[in-house]
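Predict structure. Chain length: 148.
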Amino acid sequence: MSKVKETLQADLKKAMIEKDNFKRDTIRFLMAALKQIEVDERRVLSDDDIYTIIQKSIKQRNDAAAQFKDANRADLYEKEEAEVKVLEAYLPAQLSDDELKEMIKGAISKLNASSMKDMGAVMGVVKKEAGSSADGKRVSSLVKELLK
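Prediction complete.
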């Protein structure tokens, strides 16, 4: 079993013992998503796979939170934001903007990128290097900024 999955299992048990229903439900939802993919694809998920699923789940919650905020549903907005905080705890430390910019600059020079046409290639290299330590949206905005 992967290290992240073991941590999730342990935190689920801890949340159940402490009667922290919110955290318990959030972790259960994530575990169900992981199990669904394992069953559908008939494979054991690696830590990187799990990080990708967590990032996707965070993105979905952020999108939902934005819609709830626009609809003046503060209660649901706060719930989504709280779930994001629970899920972010399971991701590796995120790279700072400075670290990410250095990585992007390295990719740009390595690929001799000079215009926005090269953005896809730069994004591919940076996402491969950074892995789950950088959100795709942040990478995209910084690449656009540096390729102008």
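Summary: The chain has a mean pLDDT of 93.
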